[in-house]
Design goal:
The chain has 533 residues and is α+β, with helices and mostly antiparallel strands. It folds into 2 domains: 225 residues, no CATH class; 233 residues, Orthogonal Bundle (Serum Albumin, Chain A, Domain 1), CATH 1.10.246. Helix content is 37%, strand content 18%. The chain is built from 19 helices and 23 strands. It has a 7-stranded antiparallel β-sheet with strand order 1-22-21-17-16-11-10. A hairpin with a 2-residue loop joins strand 16 and strand 17. Helix 4 packs antiparallel against helix 8 and helix 11 crosses helix 16. The two termini are 24 Å apart.
Length: 533
């Protein structure tokens, strides 16, 4: 194990990073450093983002997988154009009749992956360095091994039964019959070989031996995915959604990754409220309750499927200021909605800005709880993204509709914020931090440390149920008033500990367009850091 891989990341307050030559932020330090090294080697923001994401396949296997998907918003500085890449998971071509909760831990809950097709599509359009250079840090970390953090160990321990029943996972995660512990080296030789074959053989390996191994693993547990699913999958480029808020322009992912649209809808509602006069949510029960109500209004609304993006009339209504005004007038009735399924916790976000102010904001995931089905192919867990089929069942071969929100903010045509988050509370996390930055002018290191509300966690016995968690750290007077408001509106609430990872992990970068200064800070809720190039 290399010395630089021997010290795990840590929870808690992080140091702010400041620079002008580029910035990388995400939830795991080895991967962040891999991205910063790519910037120092002359790569652009897209190159660095792909290097970070590939390394996270190795260093955060509990959160993402080659069998999952990617959602990307990228802005090219030279043209000023922003593009959205939908590289998320598909439903199988074979119909999943009577799909239900019992399928989520079996192969019937495994979706068609989009991670590698999206990686190759993004690299082909915007990449400048070789695929080999971008995969090198991931291959090295897999082969050399890295120290297991307490966070990763906790996830491994919780999933030890699923990890222990598969020979592929046992060879990586077990030693002398026991799950490897904190500080011990996690070596993934099989993963290293898979990444090397992707580097050398590309799609021929992916559609050949990898697809065969994937389908065999799926078939062994009653799954329905075939090589035809791999052949039919296509990543999709589209225009991102856009909205305005108090002189800022908000750009985000478009349906079927509908978190970006939710953000624009939320800001259209909030624009009718003078938040600056009320004060930040950490000090104002009025602001906090308004943010919760607005979040719930958009987050638990009917899913914004891909067909929404293709219907200009529907999109015009959803993005309109008038629709936002009408929803603001109904805000008190929107605090406790009927509900729909929010995303599962296994997700990662990363943001990168390079010296030319190209901006990459990328969310990737295996779309489920870690190692939910215990199935592996070529060293990678099979994703459990079928959880989103419960939210809205895609047609056979159609992209799943998933609440992801890679996003960025412009002012006077220049990027000023790159933003995004993982977790069940990702939309709430991005919304609160962008309000802190845009409405209250907080430094980003203050914003990520502020207490937050989040979405109610998944309860296996009941599924996904609407509700709000409140981190410890809010003043008692604020909590008491918001709890009374929630009670009047019959909204489930629960106070949780401080800096809880289920409240999101804001991976943001602020950019001063005049001085060129970039500023970022790792969120204390996970192990991540920000690193200047």
């Amino acid at each position: 194990m290399r010395p630089e891989y021997a010290t795990p990341g840590r929870y808690g307050a992080k140091e702010v990073a400041v620079g002008t030559r580029g910035m990388v932020v995400s939830s795991e330090p080895i991967a962040v450093e891999a991205g910063a090294a790519v910037l120092r080697d002359g790569g652009n923001a897209l190159d660095a983002a792909l290097a970070v994401a590939a390394t996270q396949l190795v260093t955060e296997p509990h959160m993402t997988s080659l069998t999952g998907g990617i959602s990307l918003v990228y802005r090219e500085a030279s043209s000023g154009a922003a593009a959205y890449l939908s590289g998320n998971v598909n439903a199988p071509l074979a119909e999943l009749s009577d799909f239900g909760g019992a399928d989520l831990t079996r192969a019937r809950g495994v979706p068609v992956p989009g991670w590698w097709p999206a990686f190759t599509a993004a690299h082909a359009r915007f990449g400048s360095l070789s695929v080999g250079r971008l995969l090198a840090p991931a291959i090295d970390a897999a082969r050399e091994g890295f120290a297991v953090s307490p966070y990763l160990f906790g996830e491994m321990y919780n999933a030890r039964q699923n990890l222990g029943r598969n020979p592929e996972s046992r060879e990586m995660y077990f030693r002398d019959g026991s799950i490897i512990g904190p500080g011990q080296a996690l070596v993934q030789e099989r993963v290293a070989r898979t990444l090397e074959r992707l580097r050398d053989e590309g799609m021929s390996y992916y559609l050949g031996d990898f697809a065969r191994a994937f389908c065999a693993a799926s078939d062994s547990d009653g799954g329905v995915i075939s090589r035809a699913d791999f052949e039919a999958y296509r990543p999709e480029w589209a225009d991102p959604v856009r909205g305005t808020y108090r002189g800022f322009e908000v750009i985000g992912s478009a349906p079927p990754d509908d978190g970006g649209l939710q953000l624009v809808e939320a800001f259209n509602i909030l624009e009718n409220l003078d938040l600056a006069a009320l004060g930040p949510a950490s000090a104002s029960p009025e602001t906090l309750s308004a943010l919760i109500a607005v979040h719930n209004a958009v987050y638990y609304a009917a899913p914004r499927e891909r067909r929404f993006r293709e219907n200009e009339r529907i999109m015009d209504v959803l993005l309109s200021k008038e629709y936002g005004r009408q929803r603001f007038e109904l805000l008190d009735t929107l605090a406790g909605p009927a509900g729909a399924a929010p995303p599962s916790p296994g997700t990662i976000h990363l943001s990168v800005v390079d010296a030319d102010h190209n901006v990459a904001t990328l969310t990737h995931s295996h779309m489920a709880s870690p190692w939910v089905n215990g199935l592996f192919a070529e060293g990678f867990q099979l994703a459990g993204g079928g959880s989103f089929f419960q939210r809205v069942m895609p047609q056979p071969g159609e992209r799943a509709t998933i609440y992801l929100a890679p996003s960025m903010v412009l002012r006077d045509g220049a990027p000023v914020i790159a933003s995004g988050s993982p977790s069940v509370s990702l939309v709430a996390c991005v919304l609160q931090n962008l309000v802190n930055l845009m409405d209250f002018g907080m430094p980003i290191e203050q914003s990520v440390a502020e207490p937050r509300f989040g979405a109610r966690p998944h309860e296996p016995a009941r599924g996904w149920v609407p509700g709000t968690t409140l981190e410890s750290g809010f003043p008692d007077t604020v909590l008491a008033e918001v709890q009374r408001w929630a009670g009047r509106n019959r909204l489930w609430t629960r106070e949780i500990g401080p800096w809880n990872s289920m409240a999101g992990n804001f991976d943001g970068i602020t950019i001063d367009p005049v001085t060129g200064e970039m500023r970022s800070c790792g969120d204390p809720r996970r192990m991540g850091v920000a690193v200047a190039a």
